[in-house]
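Summary for the lay section of the report: proteins are chains of building blocks that fold into shapes. Here we show the chain for Late embryogenesis abundant protein LEA-2 subgroup domain-containing protein and then a coded description of the shape we predicted for it.
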Amino acid sequence: MADAWKQDDKEQVSPLAVAAVVEAPTGEHDEATRWPSVPYLRKRQCALWCCGCCAATLLLLGLTVLILSLTVLRAMDPTLTVNDISLPRFSAEPGDFGGDSLVCVNATLLADLSLRNPNVASFRFGRSATELYYGGETVGVAYLPEGKVGARRTSRLTATVDVLTTRVARRMNVTPEMVTSGTATVEFTSFTDVSGKVTVLGVYKRKIEIAMNCSLTLTLYTFRRASVTTNQCSANVS
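The coded shape description reads as follows.
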């Protein structure tokens, strides 16, 4: 029994185990944990370089589109000009001196026009009209069919106007002497309207309307022959 108590006393007075002490890392290990690794730095540098290249590319593309939209892709104004006006048909003879008309005139005016398109895309226009006026009254109308002018090309248009002779003769200040031996001049004005649209790359669209006014002089020589001249033409684009 005494031996058992002695054994218990020995077990109770045995010293506790000393706790293990972990030394803090020092030297090279401390430097490795303080700075990022070389592969990480390379990946980060590559990502920054790629982002910079993408941003520069987008900026360059934006500047290119802006420059093109202000120069090449910008919808410019087409031009409408008169090349020539002729009289393919003309006849005149004395009328009823006691009536409203001293002369009977039959005339057809032929207008040769040029429509130039300076754009990089085609210009499509609808059905157009050319009206002839004398003394503020319409004395003739010619219609032009719809069409298309290619990019940076010029198309020729022809307008044939049959003059309403009764309206002209009623307003002409003609004497019997002019009919038999003199000359007379008739002042006309014409108005041509062309409406169309230019579409560049399916993105840039612009509706264009060309309005041209001209003044014409028809000279009658003893009412046997005649000539027509164009005094002035002005075109407005909107």
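Put simply, here is one thing we learned. The mean pLDDT is 78.
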